[in-house]
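User: Good morning. I'm curious how iron/sulfur cluster would be positioned relative to this chain. Could you predict the structure with it bound?
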Amino acid sequence: MNLVKLRKFTYEEVTRCNRCGFCLPSCPIYLVKGIESATPRGRNAITRAVIEGRLQWSGEVEKSIFSCLGCGACTANCFPAIKTRDIVFRDRECLVSEGIYPKIADRLAQYILEEGNISNENNEERAEWQELIKGIPEHYFEKEKADVIYFVGCVASFFPLAQKIPASMAMVMEKAGVDFTVLGGQEWCCGYPLIGAGMPDKMDALIKHNVEVVERIGATKVVFTCPSCYHTWKHFYPSGAEYLSASEFLVELLREGNLELKPLDVKVTYHDPCDLGRNTGVYEPPRKVLSSIPGVELVEMEKNRQLTTCCGGGGNLEMVEPELSGKVADLKIAEIQATGADVVVSSCQQCLRTIAGRARRRKIPLIVKDITELLAEAMV
Ligand code: SF4
Ligand code: SF4
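Assistant: Good morning! Here's the predicted structure, ligand included:
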């Protein structure tokens, strides 16, 4: 989008902010930092002042704009529903065009565009997680043609803590008799991290490649365990095949009676990932999956669904300010502990990595599982 248009859309949105402050208690960054420039209201005021010429883009503005999680909690708590997340992401584009942004984002963009993933790994090793499943040959889940494509995502492909997610999802689909494939080295990053980095204009080649692969395989459905990939495909990719989050797809499998489940005697709480819930509107399918497992008791956190607190892993914050991201994770962990649940379940590899990683660092005994993992445990 050209920057003049970008500013016009943004200006129309920020001028709707009446500065009431109702959004403040919902913003995890404000709750940690306690300063006005870290509030949604503050970010909107900064943006308005820059557009009106009362303030210049600067390092201080950069700090405020790049310390947002993009979680959307502010909008859910705002009467006029100001889209601060969108404003912030557009501001990041403007800051990038001015050369004022965290330069670590250049490295991220380079990895994504040159290697096809966020970690600068050999993209051919994307299917390494298949080694977690005993007794299957290499590349077992990669096929030339299939009805369903399982798009794994960078974090679950390359971060050991999250690799159990694709292993569980693949086992569940295999057991249910789904005709599916994973893409291995042919899967490229969906481009989501570039949106958070203020560089969405660099996504085109990624979108073109991934869409071509789906067309070549002839799939009618693409399924995602990563809510950010799902969100990106839903909102930025051309329509074609049907795009489904893992839990929506699992509900279909359960409804068709394709999975036999044994009881698990466990009390769980469910963490709504921002990109799956608030940012894409999927709240009930994961809860339906949980309620389909006999013996699972679900206790909700005080803030759930639209009001959920981000885990701290959103908006590229972990890359820019890791300690701030960790402190947001502390808020989330406290909410989880208040439920008295044995296990916190989520539907996102980044949430799992952020919450489990922080709990481990702080030596907090917290069991964090993905919904696919819990379902795989319950399979007969
Ligand atoms: S963003 Fe919404 S809730 Fe926050 S100050 Fe503005 S109008 Fe009020
Ligand atoms: S999107 Fe999240 S982190 Fe950003 S201003 Fe809104 S509540 Fe705060």
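The chain has three domains: 3-98, 104-254, 260-378. Residues 26-29, 40, 43, 68-74, 84-85, 88 surround iron/sulfur cluster (ligand 2) (CB under 6 Å).
Let me know if you'd like a different ligand tried.
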